[in-house]
Write a structure and sequence with these properties.
The structure holds two protein chains of two kinds.
Chain A (H helix, E strand, L loop, with lengths): L8 H20 L19 H39 L2 H5 L11
Helix pairs in contact in A: 1-2
Chain B lengths: L2 H20 L3 H5 L3 H4 L7 H15 L1 H14 L1 H21 L4 H22 L22 H17 L3 H19 L13 E2 H18 L4 H14 L11 E2 L11 H11 L4 H14 L1 E4 L2 E4 L17 E2 L4 E2 H13 L3 H14 L2 E4 L2 E4 L4 H12 L2 H9 L3
Antiparallel strand pairs in B: 1-2, 3-4, 5-6, 7-8
Helix pairs in contact in B: 4-5, 4-16, 5-6, 6-7, 6-8, 6-16, 7-8, 8-9, 8-10, 9-10, 10-12, 12-13, 12-14, 14-15, 14-16
The chains are: A mainly alpha, B mainly alpha.
């Protein structure tokens, strides 16, 4: 699973899972507070540099989660459907095919 | 076909189709129901949650000190404006929810008294940005219309809810201070900063005059008409017909139209010239309001004008030219003119990109700050106060 290539249904699912986990960690660590830099103010108890850096990190993870994860999930389904549909009929009745691009 | 090429083609195609499917739909995920943020009567849930958070700020000294301090580190004006918008919001809340009027009045008085005390103790520069000290005010003794207009409107809205003798005197003094300066100038212009006259502050001053007339039977209509005539004659941006945001005492433009000024100006002008206010709102909606993929926002400047980036605009995201300050105040404009379609798209953007955080019935936007949240609160409760004044004292 770890070596699953990016361009495979499982690869997409894995990336979506990783983004979700990292975003959840950032969220529960309280990084959302640092997005106050968007309004030109500093997070309580932090200096401006820390506020901007942590705010940008949270912003990137948030947009990756809200935009990237649904796209990856949809793409994984589309990829799997297209691959199944485009595969030669013989492959369906033969041995279980390896996922496209799988190396292990 | 080479398996690697096939895999890349399938992968890229899947991602492209998924992106094309998700991006047009993503706004639906964040679109709040209109009943959450807008209600002609009563208090919408969002207003209650935002108000609860703000009332905490004024009842928890440590929290208040921390929040005001972090705003003052960026801009002392925001400390002041957060107070103003909260008092104006609480006045509307008191009209929407008479059962809690005493609670709201108590906090309003606390804010007003402390604000006036700080202004008297520390001087006008306490709530102004540092550049105010760079040169002297032209009209002496130095006064700022920024402070006078918002304090006057705070005092007036409080008295609309319930009379308070001390505030009647304070309001009269404040109104006369503004009026005498404006009468000295052919454009009815008064400084907010040295030789800087701001549309936002004049619009608030006009609203304060109107409320003072409603409360005390004074007559500032001629002065208001002088300002309106001068504004229509010399403060309109030729390409857009929008009022410019800043000018000097001679009426020379110091800036063009700005989102962080025009939405609030249109809201205040409703009290003194409904047709002109409507025209300015419609123009602002056309020139500054944008909706992309179901997400609404305000540009800071129209396409035909590139202003200087300043602290009023907040963050401006290049490309789409999304203005944080302008978009926040666009809520005020959209709510004032019952533009529910635009309000819906603005609210969608807010819930998507301003990072709401709800805890124990209290709402704040992490991507905002107390002044931004106070503006949003005002947009959810405004209406009853203007309506009461317009019905009580029609022009």
């Amino acid at each position: 699973m770890v070596n699953r290539p990016l361009f495979s249904p499982r690869g997409f699912l894995l990336r979506a899972l990783v983004i979700t986990v990292v975003y959840a960690l950032a969220h529960f660590a309280g990084l959302r507070e640092y997005t106050t830099f968007l309004s030109g103010t500093v997070s309580p108890g932090a200096d401006p540099h820390t506020t901007v850096v942590l705010g940008v990190v949270y912003l990137a993870l948030y947009f990756a989660w809200t935009l990237g994860v649904p796209i990856l999930l949809l793409a994984a389904g589309l990829f799997w459907a297209a691959d199944t549909w485009l595969s030669p009929p013989a492959a369906a009745s033969g041995p279980v095919p390896k996922e496209p691009g799988a190396t292990n | 076909m080479n398996p690697t090429i096939r895999r890349w083609l399938l992968g890229c195609s899947s991602l492209a189709v998924a992106t094309g499917l998700w991006l047009p739909l993503v706004h639906l995920w964040f679109e709040p129901p209109a009943s959450y943020y807008y209600s002609a009567q009563g208090v919408p849930p969002k207003a209650r949650e935002l108000a609860a958070r703000h009332l905490d700020l004024w009842t928890d000294p440590a929290l208040k000190s921390r929040e005001l301090e972090r705003m003052r580190r960026s801009n002392a004006e925001w400390d002041f404006m957060g107070r103003s918008f909260l008092v104006w919001s609480l006045a509307n809340l008191a009209l929407r929810e008479p059962a809690r009027q005493a609670d709201y009045l108590s906090v309003m008085d606390q804010i007003i008294d402390e604000t006036i005390r700080l202004e008297q103790q520390e001087g006008i520069y306490f709530f102004l940005m540092n550049y105010a000290k760079a040169r002297p005010f032209i009209v002496q003794p130095a006064r700022s219309l920024f402070l006078d207009s918002e304090i006057a409107l705070m005092l007036a809205v409080r008295r609309v809810i319930a009379e308070k003798a001390d505030y009647r005197t304070k309001l009269t003094e404040r109104i006369e201070a503004m009026a005498s300066r404006m009468r000295q100038n052919p454009l009815a212009a008064a400084e907010s900063y040295p030789d800087e006259c701001w549309l936002f502050d004049h619009a608030v001053a006009l609203a304060a005059f109107r409320l003072a007339d409603f409360l005390d039977g004074t007559r500032h209509q001629p002065l208001i008409q002088t300002w309106l005539a001068a504004a229509k004659a010399s403060l309109l941006h030729p390409a857009t017909g929008l009022l410019i945001s800043a000018y000097n005492l001679q009426g020379k433009a110091a800036d063009g139209p700005e989102g962080s000024s025009i939405w609030m100006a249109a809201h205040c002008l409703q009290l003194v010239d409904e047709a002109f206010a409507r025209d300015q709102y419609d123009r602002a909606r056309r020139e500054l309001g944008r909706v992309v993929g179901g997400f609404g926002y305000s540009r800071e400047w129209p396409v035909s004008w590139q202003g200087l980036r300043d602290v009023d605009a907040g963050a401006v995201i290049p490309g789409l030219e999304i203005s944080a300050g302008g978009s926040g105040l666009a809520f005020v404009g959209a709510a004032s003119f019952h533009d529910l379609d635009f309000l819906k798209t603005l609210s969608t953007t807010l819930d998507f990109a301003a990072f709401p955080q709800k805890k124990q019935g209290r709402l704040k936007y992490c991507g905002s700050n107390p002044v931004g949240d106070a503006v949003l609160l005002y947009s959810t409760v405004m209406g009853p106060l203007w309506e009461k004044v317009q019905k009580g004292n029609p022009w």
